[in-house]
Amino acid sequence: MNKFEFYSPTKVIFEKDAEQRVGSEIKKWGGKKVLIHYGGSSAKKSGLLDRVEASLRKENMDYVMLGGAQPNPRLSLVREGIELCRKTGVDFILGVGGGSAIDSAKAIALGVPYEGDVWEIYEGKAVPKTALPHCNIITLAATGTETSASSVITNEEGWLKKGYNCEFNRPRFTLLNPELLYTLPPYQTACGVVDIMMHTMDRYFSPGGINEMTDRIAEAVLRTTIQYGAVCMKEPENYEARSEILWAGSLSHNTLTGLGRKGDWAVHQMEHELSGKYDVAHGAGLAAIWGAWARYVYKEDVMRFARFGVNVWNLNLNYENPKETALAAIEVTTDYFCSLGMPINIPELIGRKATEEEMREMAVKCTFFGNRTIGGIKVLGEEDIYNIYVESNK
């Protein structure tokens, strides 16, 4: 096991009607004026925002509201939120919604005290010295951003999608109410299940040597997500199933499932280019690229993929030919994505084949225009990334 530091300070409040505690919890942190940052109309129609506002008023808190967060959250809205917070004296950020709203809220929290443009932080040209405190009410089991140190934003100029990790991105607390997931469309539920799996798998399929405790945690998260994700698709108001995948989502991305491993993240990086260019749902993009990536890299660690098949999918290990088990594990994973209604290649994702020019462009952008390689289990350069896009484009 490699050395590591584990720091996951976010307070988790998991219960029915958890959102009604938001006012009292923010008050404990000294918040006086709150930005409520949310996505579309569903938070209003469901009555969630009404309950949030009532909780804040009960604690005599002032608040302003900013809606409009959307999948692949936009830098322009982040900038708007930063100016609103500065103008109105906001001292605490509350994100309400799915991962996009929470990531956008994190970016606003970073940008308010920063004197330059917040995109400089995401480009790696600046390091924040502080941020506004923030919390969230999550309405989608997917990104794990409710407890993570990461945030991903899309810049409409050039459609560049970049993530930034730092401890300032850690929410002070998160409020998890499984009932808030009942009204999710099946497609969003499926995208969330894939995202949870991929946050775990991008850590699991990476160098790290013997790492039994962490690997077993990761395998448990995967097995639980696979089992209860399928139940959620058939029974959207099954409280136990929604509870299991909601908690699995948080555990998948608070670093617990990858402690002692370097992580790979190639699939996430390649997907960022897909969703940045085609504006597709993140989970769907991950499902579309994973199989092509896995078939491209599995020979670097056949036994890792074989173990995945045995411990996650209950496959029998072919001791004489573990390659067979590894390939079967890849196939059963993509079959599961199909069962959720997810695309497993680029044509299924965008409704057509990507052009040669588009795939070349995404490969170049993924290397930050020749300034980096990606991946851990196999280091990938521009040509490798392009080849994986080609494989996924069949």
Automatic annotation (TrEMBL):
GO terms for molecular function: alcohol dehydrogenase (NADP+) activity; butanol dehydrogenase (NAD+) activity; metal ion binding; methylglyoxal reductase (NADPH) (acetol producing) activity. CDD domains: BDH. Gene3D superfamilies: 3.40.50.1970, Dehydroquinate synthase-like - alpha domain (1.20.1090.10). InterPro entries: ADH_Fe/GldA, ADH_Fe_C, ADH_Fe_CS, BDH-like. GO terms for cellular component: cytosol. Keywords: Oxidoreductase. It comes from the Bacteria. The keyword Oxidoreductase applies. Residues 189-389 form the Fe-containing alcohol dehydrogenase-like C-terminal domain. SUPFAM superfamilies: Dehydroquinate synthase-like. Residues 9-178 form the Alcohol dehydrogenase iron-type/glycerol dehydrogenase GldA domain. This is Uncharacterized protein. It comes from Anaerocolumna aminovalerica.
